[in-house]
Amino acid sequence: MERDVVIIGAGPSGLTAAWELKKAGLSVAVLEARDRVGGRTWTDTIDGAMLEIGGQWVSPDQTALLGLLDELGLETFPRYRHGESIYIGPDAKRQRYTGEMFPVSEQTQAEMNRLIGILDTLAAEAGPEAPWTHPMARELDTISFHHWLRKQSSDEDACNNIGLFIAGGMLTKPAHSFSALQAVLMAASAGSFSNLVDDNFILDKRVIGGMQQVSERLAAKLGDDVVLNSPVRTLRWAGQAPDAATAAADSTHDGVTAISDSVTVRARYAIMAVPPNLYSRVSFEPPLPRRQHQMHQHQSLGLVIKIHAVYETPFWREEGLSGTCFSPTSVVQEVYDNTNYQDPRGTLVGFISDEKADAMFELSVEDRKAAVLGAVAEYLGPKALEPVVYYESDWGSEEWTRGAYAASYDLGGLHRYGKDQLTPVGPIYWSCSDLAAEGYQHVDGAVRMGQQTAARILGAAETAGTAAASAPASTGAGEPAGTARHGA
């Protein structure tokens, strides 16, 4: 088939781009390897319980996602957060508390506030668009977040608690494996580090019926232009440039040919709307420039187990608890009330990240479940040991994801490669939440990237169409690039 644009990946970013392009009059084809749309958003029914297996939360600053939800007719509901939260510190003491700050010593609280202030300042200075331009970018990018925190403070509890918000809660990698600059980007993308600390802000609302509906409703609008069970094996593009800058400047290309297991699509442009760790699953002919080859090897996803436990009732509410729990030392570092809209049952969701997830995967299924529920029971009591439904989201084993939540650079990679991560290679564009500025790692970032990528292609098509229209007839210039094309 022939289209103006072929999109590889039917997650929120690829489908948003496809819908924006189609509304503008271009023809599209979206090729998806899975048997479903949604990418890293997935709502499924497990043993009679609806579970958000993938991304799910909406925060007030995520205006691109909020706008799309409104366009698609989807409504949200607030996360339950009434009552006291639970914190278990290094001394294994269980404490009930209210407010944003953990119930730690005055000294540790002061250090945490000081560190948050430093990170807020750096995030404001760096911004989400180009943190690699910050005067201290190289310095911040060549030291791990773990060691940077300890250069700022000798309070180990403060460092571990601050590290929890980025390492376990966001990047799902040990704090010694990513840079301070990567942490600053994570904070800047959410508006500030203070926003990341405030679970009432960052985990504000959910979509009634599940986040995957965003992709499902976009796919319904696109109809037969979305092709499932079609992993793209080869992407042929005309022209070979020695580096990214030359490739981006070269607008005189003959388009692309995407060859999947079920269909071949010839198009003027291609959008790679999958995480960077999956780029290598596609054979590019000719190969991508060396800059991309090197860059993509320095980007990887983290590891997290998202656990779901459904109970006959939300028993913790009866005890005056919100269901929100934190501990930098527990196997399950975070727990939240994840009860579905108007559901009389109670659902808890918990997260086990990086090295703790490694340890859990070394156990048998039965022993892992016992260890996980035991950790939740340390927060909320023995009733947590007896859910009616228990499920583990293991995105690291998903063939077409292979990690969570999104890609980040290894030490030194962000300031080295960040400026080129969105540079098109001839007709090939890159679009995913992993590359977003605002909304980085979130569905909002995926939507923003889809909108921005569509706008860039529309601009390129308009430029190419103008050039073609003004070319002498003897050059053989064909139809303008912006003209929608259909056919088999």
Descriptive notes:
This protein has helices spanning 12-23, 63-72, 106-126, 137-141, 145-152, 156-171, 180-189, 193-197, 199-202, 212-222, 244-249, 290-297, 315-318, 354-361, 365-380, 413-417, 443-470; strands at 2-8, 28-31, 43-46, 49-52, 57-58, 76-78, 84-88, 94-97, 205-207, 226-227, 232-237, 256-260, 264-272, 283-285, 299-302, 304-311, 321-326, 334-337, 346-353, 389-394, 404-409, 428-430. The protein has 17 helices and 22 strands. The protein has 488 residues and is an alpha/beta fold. Helices cover 36% and strands 22% of the residues. The N and C termini lie close together (4 Å). Helix 1 (12-23) packs parallel to helix 17 (443-470), helix 2 (63-72) crosses helix 17 and helix 5 (145-152) crosses helix 7. The relative contact order is 0.20. The strands form 5 sheets. Strands 1, 2, 10, 11, 12, 13, 14 and 22 form an 8-stranded mixed beta sheet that branches. Strands 8-7-17-18-19-16-20 form a 7-stranded mixed beta sheet. Strands 5-9-6 form a 3-stranded antiparallel beta sheet, with helices on one face. Among the domains are: 2-41 and 212-289 and 425-475, FAD/NAD(P)-binding domain, CATH 3.50.50; 42-58 and 76-100 and 304-402, Polyamine Oxidase, Chain A, domain 2, CATH 3.90.660.
